Amino acid sequence: TADNITIKGCTVRDIYRDGITCYGVGITVIDCEVAYVGSNGISVYGGDVATLTKSNNLICNNYVHNWSQRATMNLGVISEGCGSTVCHNEVGDSTDLGMTARGPYHTVEYNYIYKTNRYYFIYIHRIYFYKMDSSILFWYYITNLKIFQYFQFLY
Fold this sequence. Notes:
By secondary structure, this protein is mainly beta. It has strands spanning 6-8, 11-13, 20-23, 28-30, 33-35, 42-46, 58-60, 63-65, 75-81, 85-87, 90-92, 97-102, 107-109, 112-114, 121-124, 127-130, 137-139, 150-152.
C-alpha cells in the first residue's frame, strides 16, 4: 500500500504472477509495457466505495499484451475502488478478459482493446450485451463512463 506514487516508462516482462499491482490513492501508471505475465497485467486499487472518496488513480498510455500466461480468468487492466481514470491504453493479444473497472466514478476512455477472449459480456449500467467478440470490458457499477473505446472485432 502506497499513496502518491508514479510508475512511468517501465517494461515488465516474463513475470510469474501479476505485472504491476498497486493499492492506494494518487497512483499513476503511465507509459509502461506489461507483457508475458502469468496473471493480471496492471491492477490498481484505491478509493473508498462506502464513502465515495475518490482515489484519483490514473492508468494511462500503457501497452498491455500477452497476460494470463500461467492462469485463467485474469485481466489486462484492473481498476477497482472509486474515482480512477483509465485512458489511452492498448490492451490485447490474450486468451483472457481485457479490462475491468469496478466501483463508482471511474472514467474509462480512449482505450484500444483487441484480441481478447470471446463470448463473455459487457455490463454497463445493468444492461447486458451478449456475444461480443471480446470480453473487452467487464464493469459492475460506473457512474462516469465515457464510451470512447475502440474495440477491434475479429471474426
